[in-house]
Every structure is written in structure tokens, then in C-alpha cells.
Amino acid sequence: MRLATILTASGPRLHVRGQSGYVDAASESGDEGLADLSLVLRTGSRSWDQLRGLAAGEGRSVEKSEFAPTLPVPNRILCLGVNYSEHALETGREVPKWPECFVRGAPSVTGPYADLVRPALTERFDYEGELGIVIGRGGRYIPAAKALEAIAGYLVCNDASARDWQRAGTQWTPGKNFDGTMPLGPELVTVDEVDVSDIQLTTTVNGEVRQSARTSQMLVDVPRAIEFFSTFTTLQPGDVIATGTPGGVGMGHQPPLWLVPGDIVEITVEGVGTIRNRVVAEDPKAVLNAWVPAVAPGRNL
User: Fold this and answer.
1) The domain containing residue 55 runs over which residues?
2) Using H for helix, E for strand and C for coil, what is the string for 177-231?
3) Cα separation of 104 and 46, whole Å?
4) Per-residue pLDDT tens for 6-45?
5) How far is Cα 240 from Cα 226, in angstroms, rounded to an integer?
6) Are residues 157 and 88 part of one domain?
7) Bond prior to 255 in cis (omega within 30° of 0)
8) CATH no. for residue 251?
9) Looking at residues 34-58, what average pLDDT do you find?
10) Who's near 135: CB < 8 A, 6+ residues apart?
């Protein structure tokens, strides 16, 4: 089953991909509890059964501009960093022996085909194509062998980063949390639809392949990511886990290939989907009394 959040006259509403388009789940069923994916994730199996029944419907065609983030307001976004060896090496790091992680907030999310706004306060804006996990049942102390039971499905994400803000200090939070810098979508693809253990991930910029890897190359795979995060926090319905990006990011090139307005970033995860975002400049007039990162000389940026 494939679910998308579509912009309508009534606001963002959950849709099920039907036989020839998208079915408005709440309108078709008469149950407004199916209008919001976050609510569906919290209510459990009955809602999922209703949605599966709607997938047999015809639906309507939807323009790319109508797609909202699959989860417009994620509960949390838990992120793995340097989770591919090649990416660790290209950024001047050793391959980590312990999972590197950080957290994004919901305001950083944007749509799968929306403009990707390059913050006015960075000159080092970078792309990071990733597989995203959406938590369904969740739980605490989940062993890897039972990880799939905690997952609702998968989506594509771009962990776009302001590298100067990320690397100016020892914590990554500022560079990872500018508003609207993480496209999510285009659909949530349920675990029964795709086996993500060894699928292709590709990122292009203006049609040029920049990243190409398979999820089997992850240092911490999907089941172990669930096990790791659930060890120190209870995974809750509506959490998203970003599983890290492979080698080929802009900062890994010499000279670096930073994103500039007009660039088109397209990320495809085999069997899950494709997101496509045009980079635009933030209005510099919006920036007042702003901090500017003082990046230490010699840092690998």
C-alpha cells in the first residue's frame, strides 16, 4: 500500500494510491480519522484495514505541486550520520565504530516536489539522499529480529545541510535544522511492498549522478537502526528515522559542489519513489541580526 498527503481545498489530507490515482481516505470512507497520517499511525490496525480497502478504488490524478510532505508534522526525525563508509572517508572522518546520530525538528520538513530554499546564511548548502523509515507501532528495546513489526513504511528524504553551520561547532544541530530543508515523500510505502535490505539509492543534480549506492552498504542497516534508537528512547508512531547518506555529497568533491539557486536535486530510492526539488534563494531581507558561523581554518568543508 502507498499513502500520500495531498494538498486540497480543505488542507493537507491523507490519500491512498488507488488503481488509477489517489483516493481521499477520509472523504471516501466517511471517517475523518483517516484524514491525517499521524492520527492513522497512532490509532493502529483498524485504520490500516480501512485504508487497504480503499486501495482498490480508482482515485484521481494528482499534480506534483499538490503533494505535501508525507508526514507534514513528524513526531521526531532521528537521523543517522556517516552511515556509509565512503561518505565517512570523503568527509575526512574515520569509519565510525558507534552510530553517529542527531535530531531534526518538524519545521525543517518540506514537500517532495517543493522548492528547496537555500538559507541566506549559508554558502555551503549540500544535498544528502537518504532512505527514511516511518515508525508505526514503535516501542522500546526492540531487537533487530523484530524491527519490521515497529515500522509503518518507508519514504525518500533529502537531509539537506548547511555545512558551514554544521561544522562550525562540535554539534550538528544548527546545520541540519534550517526551516524547510528536508523534503519528505512522495509516499509512505508499507513494509509489505518493498524489501529495503538491498535497493539502489541515486541522487542527481541537474541530471548528473552524484550519489549511487545500495542500502546493503549501510554500516547500520534498517533493523539495527530500530534496535539502536529504541535502546535509549521509546520509538513512537510518527517518528521518522533518516538512515544516512552515501558518498558523493557536494562537500566530498574537490572543489566542493555546493547547491546554488536553479539547481534541480532528484533523489530516487528503488521501489520507494523519487523526490525532485528546485533550489531557490531565501530572501536576504528576511535575515536580521543573524549569527554567521566562524568556521575554524583547516576544517574539511
Assistant:
1) 2-66
2) CCCCCEEEEEEEEECCCCCHHHCEEEEEECCEEEEEEEHHHECCCHHHHHHHHHH
3) 30
4) 999 999 999 999 999 999 999 999 999 999 999 999 987 7
5) 11
6) yes
7) yes
8) 3.90.850.10
9) 91
10) 41, 75, 150, 151, 152, 235, 236, 237, 238, 239, 240, 241
Number of folded domains that form the chain: 2
Least confident among 30-34, 142-146, 205-209, 230-234? 30-34
Q: Is 72 part of a structural domain of the chain?
A: no
Instruction: Please tell me the total number of residues recorded for the chain in this structure.
Output: 301
Taking the model in full, what pTM does it have? Answer: 0.94
pLDDT digits (tens, 9 = 90+) for 99-157: 999 999 999 999 999 999 999 999 899 999 999 999 999 999 999 999 999 999 999 99
Shared-domain flag, residues 137 and 214: yes
Q: In the predicted model, what is the mean pLDDT of the chain?
A: 93
Question: Which cell numbers hold the place of 228?
Answer: 539502536
C-alpha cell at 275: 523526490
pLDDT at 300: 46
Residues 275 and 113: their CA atoms lie apart, in Å, by: 6
The grid coordinates of residue 115 equal 522548492
